[in-house]
Write a structure and sequence with these properties.
Strands 5-9-8-6-10 form a 5-stranded mixed barrel. The two termini are about 25 Å apart. The protein has helices at about 25-35, 65-80, 130-145, 185-195, 215-220, 225-230; strands at about 15-20, 35-40, 50-55, 55-60, 85-95, 105-110, 130, 150-155, 180, 195-205. By secondary structure, it is an alpha/beta fold. A hairpin with a 6-residue loop joins strand 2 and strand 3.
């Protein structure tokens, strides 16, 4: 089988796939948490693995940075490999003061500045939302683990380095948007189009409010709370 971006064969992926942006985070999760992990793809060094977690089959594969990248990988996982539950685990920048660095966000909704969703040619503005089934399980897991978490709206942006322009009107934070990242809207709309389930479980890596930030090594290997919550969704 295979695609231009994925050399796995039919049946190599489980129905549930964790999708960190960083392929090295995918490798870390597979080697740290999965029983008998095997690598099923490495095209463009975007690593994918399948193994078991507490006896249940699960896969983990990198999704890259930005909506075009995660849009390609999630589309292929759903349409070519039959994956039904896609769980993005990644980082986000806090936009509101109550959201602190290293806390978790479960993205119930995703606003976006991108034209990605408009390419579905809907006759209006589509609301990108997560799977309630996965959201409910994520909240239950966080409560059991006594983790600090937030549930709400996030912003999905095409730009990481935004130009230093003052907002002309209402800010995202004023509308209750918790944080900003770069993949959720593409993942949510792809899943909705195909009747699949998706959720973004995010760790706050930095804050636009306080200026606090974490290191690249922390983001790759120590944001384990979101990984463990995600694995509880299998």
């Amino acid at each position: 089988m295979g695609t231009p971006h994925n050399e796995a064969k039919k049946g190599d992926f489980a129905k549930t796939v964790l999708m960190p942006g960083d392929p090295l985070r995918a490798k870390y999760i597979a080697e740290t948490y999965l029983e008998n992990p095997r690598q099923v793809t490495a095209v463009r060094n975007m690593f994918g693995y399948t193994g078991t977690y507490k006896g249940k089959e699960i896969s983990v594969m990198g999704g890259g940075m930005g909506m075009p990248s995660v849009g390609i990988y999630s589309y292929e996982l759903i349409h070519f490999y039959g994956c039904r539950n896609l769980i993005r685990i990644g980082t986000a920048g806090a936009l509101r003061p109550e959201v602190k660095v290293r806390e978790l966000i479960f993205a119930m909704g995703s606003c976006t500045t991108s034209n990605y969703v408009k390419q579905f040619r809907l006759p209006g503005d589509y609301s990108c939302v997560c799977s309630y089934e996965l959201l409910e399980k994520a909240v239950e897991s966080a409560k059991k683990r006594n983790l600090k978490y937030h549930v709400g709206n996030i912003l999905c942006s095409d730009m990481f380095y935004n130009p230093p322009l003052e907002p002309a009107g209402t800010t995202w934070a004023q509308m209750g948007v918790l944080a900003v990242e770069m993949e959720s809207a593409a993942l949510y709309s792809n899943a909705a189009y195909a009747g699949a389930n998706a959720i973004c479980i995010l760790t706050v890596s930095d804050s636009a409010v306080t200026g606090e930030a974490t290191t690249a090594e922390e983001r790759e290997k120590t944001f384990t709370n979101m990984m463990e919550v995600a694995l509880d969704l299998v």
